[in-house]
Amino acid sequence: SFNADICEFVVEGTLIACGTSDEPIMFLSQASVPGKGDWDGIRFTATDAQEKSCIDNVIVSGADSGLEVYGNNIEICNFTARYCNTGLNIITASGSVYNGLGFEDCNVGLKADSTTNCVFCGVTANNCGTGAVFNNNSLLNFNNFDLRNTVNTGIQVIDKNMTVIRNGVIHSVSKGMSIGLIAIVICVAGGMIYVRRDKYEV
After folding, report:
1. Model pLDDT, residue 34
2. Closest by CA position to 126, among listed 145, 154, 140, 105
3. Which of 56, 62, 85, 119 is disulfide-compatible with 97, CB 3.0–4.6 A?
């Protein structure tokens, strides 16, 4: 556990954090009344370490950003963020696959920024302000998702080149999707919708 005084766990080499479904590894706030932003979270810097970092069956709670990841040298699956301002923030990754991501009571569940050809699948979010935010990405694929009870927007997309969204559920109090300045393919049962507009909201 981490003290309520603001701190950050910075990884500049390799971190192997592999729990199990029965015994996950937990990084938690130690505040008497835990809240979002009690600590900064875990940040992975871009690195040329020979061995990839691994996050598997890990829970982060009460952080500003649960995981913030720069680059590709990490495998993330079965990750859960709770009560964070941002659950997972992926920056400048290329060709990575992220599977089994869960977000609960975060302001934003998932963020991806300036990535290329990345895949996010098996994503769930519940009671988040916004389920997922995609900005300045190319060839992003977001599939098999379940975003429930979002307060603001289920998915917000401002990407630069062909985002594909398919096989998912969005339940939002406000907007299901907000799309701007991109080409996007939304796949639905029996076909697909191709959208290319300056702004599109549903």
Report:
1. 77
2. 105
3. 119
